[in-house]
Specification:
0% strand
Length: 253
């Protein structure tokens, strides 16, 4: 049980990174940061205003992260509560079913199959009603960002929610890990915003491949759940950590 929990924790964090790198997210990151920061490129190139503009992007970026993290974690808590109340006694039999659903989501990301309802983009657009550059705007935009669905990131979030149905605690922890995986690269981009433009332009060219990698990742996770071999992911994690000399960290977990 501990191994499965650790494996899903790693998977949830990785899914958050894939969500950041997805072609539905990565190309929009500069626009999101510029909007929540309320700054223009000219502000960053002006020596007198650059530091203020940069700090504003970072601070408001934290509020954006807080906005989507709160919603994701609340979703995890809700799913965990409903799951523990309704499917808890049958979980042993339903885990493989959940695995098949995750495989389905992976196939959707790979465009191997298409379900018209899930191929549409759904989002709440409050951007035109809020003032750019304010902390409240960043918070609201982060929250609305988390409530949207798009073909390349919706399946990732749905998969994480699907494995967070055992308890309220599990739902909160897994979605916290997911939020952290999404938040870390986003905040790194905010901190290095003025230097990241060229890097992001290059990364965007390859972002379409992230859907392929993400789809394969989901299928891999789904197969492990179906065959009840999720502990293998943790075993491979030990090997990777040992190669880099970080295996001692597991002794403290």
């Amino acid at each position: 049980m501990v191994e499965v929990g650790l494996g899903l924790l790693i998977a949830s964090f990785t899914a958050g990174i894939f969500m950041f790198l997805a072609p539905c997210t990565l190309p929009l990151v500069p626009a999101y940061l510029a909007f929540i920061g309320g700054v223009k490129q000219s502000d960053l190139s002006d020596p007198d205003r650059a530091k203020f503009a940069h700090n504003k992007i970072v601070v408001n970026g934290l509020y954006f992260v807080l906005g989507f993290s709160v919603i994701f974690i609340l979703l995890g808590v809700l799913v965990g509560f409903l799951g523990s109340q309704t499917i808890g006694p049958f979980r042993q039999f339903l885990v493989p079913v959940g695995g098949w659903f995750i495989i389905l989501f992976g196939l959707l990301m790979l465009n191997v199959i298409k379900i018209p309802t899930l191929m549409k983009e759904h989002k709440l657009n409050f951007a035109k009603h809020i003032e750019p550059g304010t902390k409240s705007a960043a918070l609201i935009l982060g929250a609305t960002f988390s409530l949207g669905w798009s073909p390349c990131i919706g399946p990732i979030l749905a998969s994480v929610l699907l494995v967070a149905t055992e308890s309220v605690t599990q739902g909160a922890i897994f979605l916290t890990a997911f939020s952290l995986g999404l938040a870390l690269p986003l905040m790194l981009t905010a901190i290095l915003y003025s230097r990241m433009t060229g890097v992001l332009n290059v990364a965007v060219r390859f972002s379409k491949y992230m859907s392929v990698i993400g789809g394969v990742f989901l299928i891999f996770i789904g197969v492990l759940m179906v065959v009840d071999k999720f502990g293998l992911m943790v075993q491979y994690g030990y090997v990777v950590f040992e190669i880099f000399g970080f295996d001692g960290l597991f002794d403290k977990l």
